[in-house]
Amino acid sequence: MMAVPMQRRPFLALPALLLARPAPAQARLSVVASFSILADMARQIGGEHITLRAIAGPDVDAHGFQPRPSDAAALAGADVVIRNGLGFEGWLDRMIRSSGFRGRLVTTTEGLTPRMMQAHAHHGHDHGGSGRRQHHSVAARQTQDPHAWQDLRLAENYLRQIAAGLIATDPGGEALYRRNAEAYAARLATLDQWVRAEIAKVPPARRKIVTSHDAFGYFGDAYGVRFLAPQGVSTEAEPSAAEVGRLIRQIKAESITALFMENMTNPATLQRIAQETGLRVRGRLYADALSAEAGPAPTYEAMFRHNVSLMVPAMRGDAA
Ligand code: ZN
């Protein structure tokens, strides 16, 4: 009974000004990330200092995403919003303009030189008539490839931008954010070396993979793998029959064996390619979204381990 008043006396003696200020542990930053991969990166760096919401969650296609009213409300109240940029989340830019968001906007690809690609570079032929996709206007011959997170070395730019945004908004957390970002960058550098060692197990001529859409261009440039896809860098346009037919002929001509679905795109075209080539789909690569917590790719690091573990035996043509 004596302990209670003894403990309360110094607390009550505190000046009102100090009492009105929340303790640092309670002043968690409200962070909204456009999609699950950026949310995981923010979680690794912000840890317990932030509350986090991913707008496009696990297994959700962030291309052409349709935000809900609750997403706009979360955005309006956020301290920090994290986006990829390079045209990946046009819907987010529209939301930011209309939501009254007044926090800090972090663009993780800021400072990177984007990979450019011809709208149809993966097919290398000029088609007209019924094969032309309405999605690509004449002016959009060159497209910025937004999928820079598929190169672990470019991810360092992502970490730097996220850490800088958190520090600028919450200077009191600087030591923690820096420590977490440095440890995270070190883990990603180790993972990058592992990816290179794994890819080296595949003869160079066999380093070819077919996936649903052009999500792995940066991966291909970084690790020396050629990716082919019936769909372009966005999932918003459907591939034409002529494009799919040409890809099927190329798979046969080059004896490609690595055929993959993606976790967040429609598998119909890939299943058709599998049927017509007699190939087996080798599983599901995580391209633009992580898996749920119980799945094989709940973090950015787990996504790389999962993807590469599937890619290597499939490229070699190992029986599974
Ligand atoms: Zn994509």
Would you mind describing this structure in some detail?
The protein has 320 residues and is an alpha/beta fold. It is built from eleven helices and eleven strands. A four-stranded parallel β-sheet has the order 2-1-3-4, with helices on both faces. Helix 9 packs across helix 10 (268-277). The relative contact order is 0.13. The model is unreliable at 1-24 and 120-139 (pLDDT under 50). It binds zinc ion. The site of zinc ion (ZN) has 7 residues, from loops.
Features:
3-stranded parallel beta sheet; 320 residues; binds zinc ion; 11 strands; globular; 41% helix; 11 helices
Structural class: alpha/beta
Total of DSSP H or I helical runs spanning 4+ residues? 11
**Proportion of residues in extended strands:** 5-15%
Please describe the biggest sheet, giving its number of strands, its sense, and whether it closes into a barrel. Answer: 4 strands, parallel
Alpha-carbon distance between the two ends: 70 Å
Estimate percent helicity.
40-55%
Ligands, deduplicated: zinc ion
Q: Strand arrangement, largest sheet? A: 2-1-3-4
Which consecutive residue ranges, at least 5 long each, have pLDDT under 50?
1-24, 120-139
Overall pLDDT score: 87
Topology of this protein?
Layout: H1 3-12, H2 16-20, E1 29-35, H3 36-46, E2 50-56, H4 69-76, E3 80-83, H5 90-99, E4 104-107, E5 115-118, E6 142-145, H6 155-169, H7 174-199, E7 208-210, H8 217-223, E8 226-228, H9 241-253, E9 258-259, E10 261-262, H10 268-277, E11 284-285, H11 300-316
Helix pairs in contact: 3-6, 4-5, 6-7, 7-11, 9-10
The protein binds zinc ion (ZN).
Zinc ion (ZN) binds at residues 63, 147, 213, 215, 235, 287-288.
